[in-house]
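Hello again,

I reread your note about wanting to compare the complex against the isolated chains. To keep things tidy I'm splitting this into two emails, and this first one only covers the full assembly. Below are the input lines as submitted, including protein chains and any nucleic acid or small-molecule components. They are followed by the predicted structure of everything together. The single-chain runs will come separately.
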Amino acid sequence: MPRLPDGTRDHDKSTDWLEDTWATLSELHQNYTLQDGSKKLRAIGVCNFSTSNLKKVLASKYTKPAVNQIELHPYLPQSPLLKFCAQNDIVVTAYSPLGSTEAPLLKDETVNKIAKAHNASPAQVLISWHVAHGRSVIPKSISTERIAANFQRVDFTKEELDTLDNLAKTELGGKPKRLVKPDWGIKVFDEEDEL
Amino acid sequence: MRSELSIGLNVYPAPDSTSSFRRHQRLNTLSLSFYNNTMAPYTEILTLNTGAKFPAVGLGTWQAGEGTDEVVSFALKHGYRAIDGAFMYQNEESVGKGIKDSGIDRKDIFVTTKLAPAYMRKDKIKEGIDKSLKALDLDYIDLYLVHWPCEHKPSRLKILLIFRSSESRRWYIDASFA
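Full-complex prediction:
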């Protein structure tokens, strides 16, 4: 990502993500087709969108996003944002389900306790948590054994699900932890989305 | 005889990209210590508001490194049917190769990729789409996402080194995006 001489991000202020980018993408989604008339972009969506940004898209005349891909794990449960997406038929994909760099959630005691009860790994618990809630999740691994293990489902009890849902409240004192924080240069996230 | 002039562009991954798939790793002789025979594989499939079917668990490819093709191919052979990529990850070509190498039908795989911030300008978006389609070597993308809600000016190319290989007698330019 380019920077200005003073070190700040070199934003293209002439481009508006809604009126330029999303408007054009909506048009291309409809009209950019293969010879047989099928769409080159079967569905379009967004990443890292807050409730307030999604509201702007939904209030516009452009295509409704099919998916919002966001950082999501028990330390950043984003309940208000999840609720908003569910109400508006937008599927949520969770990225960094293990907590990104060094996967801090793998060391969480509660996660480990639940994993042990199922003879599963903490990673399997953290991935299955999303699927149990009807979300999509995209764990990344470059180890074949982890790729294989990450594709195995843990079946939780209602109590275990509640425990995972409330981890940011019970363990972090209601202070959710966002772990992927690139230097965006401008405000991207809403704090009220996070708990 | 003059040697042919060709330009090879090496784009360096982000400095914090530590992942590198070990190519010598034998895919079929691993001890699967994380793998539990008694657990069920995922079969969950979500429905998008377009009506499309979206497999709930997919493989992420951010920082998957040089062996991305092998990782993607392994995952697909192992039951995964969704792959998540991005132009910004600089490995779409490798993702596309992994999809081909897996032998799984294209129509049975859900491919996601993302529009990079440098292509968010009105007149650059189609170019961004075409670049991804070409790198992935695919006709269509199942889900195309805007990577984040802020635009950056296109990166500037910084030339690091120009040299001629004594072996191939070709000229090379090493460059990086700043």
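For quick reference: Chain B touches chain A through 76 residues (CB under 8 Å).

B.
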